[in-house]
Amino acid sequence: MSRIRCQIDQLTPLSDTVFKAVLTPEQALAFKPGQYLTVVMGEEDKRPFSIASSPLDDQIELHIGASVAESFAMQVVDRLRNDSHIEIEAPFGEAYLRHDSERPRILIAGGTGFSYIHSLLDTLLRQGDTRTTFLYWGARDPDAMYLKAIADQWAERFPHLTFVPVFDDAIAGHRQGTVIDAVCEDFVSLHDYDVYIAGRFEMAGAARERFRQQGVLDAHLFGDAYAFMK
């Protein structure tokens, strides 16, 4: 783990509640797709965010969900908006991409959990990986699925990738419900798959219980939340 000073190059809204931050580290950051960093707000105040960019990039991209003034995340957005530099610590996390696995993959995102999935998929597609991959992304409505256009483009361009958007609201032509239900409906057994998941802790916990019933092996289920759960 290293502490690195970064120049704040960009802070732009991706939706009403999600911001994209682009940082240039003053020294190279070595990390694996799917790992996360902490933004150093103070010596006793370090806030975790998935790295949305690929290790193939020189810059670091973050997707920050922040909708409430003075919230945990909005305080970070305000710091990024007002300062020219910020310190990070990285890398962290064991839910990184397993390049050596030959199993097909199911990638699951809830809300801004797509930032974690974005790092995995962006790396895989740019490296020419053609293993069968399913992407499930759950959000309240199309506006909340802040990079749906990119996911659609990936699925159109790469025939081995299937993208399944799932909405809380009823949206014509799309699945309604939860991503957990959608995955369990679509796969009789998860025994032979690697499953990567990011979203709220409650979602990750519920997913693990359901997916175990569908045959997933804990050794093939990856998510940062599981490091903090029994």
CATH class categorisation of the largest domain: Alpha Beta
The amount of helix comes to 10-25%
Apparent shape:
globular
For the secondary structure, the number of strands is 12
Indicate the CATH architecture of the largest domain: 3-Layer(aba) Sandwich
Please name the fourth-level CATH homologous superfamily of the largest domain. Answer: Nucleotide-binding domain of ferredoxin-NADP reductase (FNR) module
Q: In the residues, how many domains can be counted? A: 2
Largest sheet: 6 strands, antiparallel
Question: What strand line-up does the widest sheet have?
Answer: 4-3-6-1-2-5
How much of the residues is beta strand, in percent? 25-35%
- The helix/strand class is alpha/beta
Give keywords.
230 residues, alpha/beta, Elongation Factor Tu (Ef-tu), domain 3, Rossmann fold, 2 domains, 6-stranded antiparallel sheet, 5 helices, 12 strands, globular, OxRdtase_FAD/NAD-bd
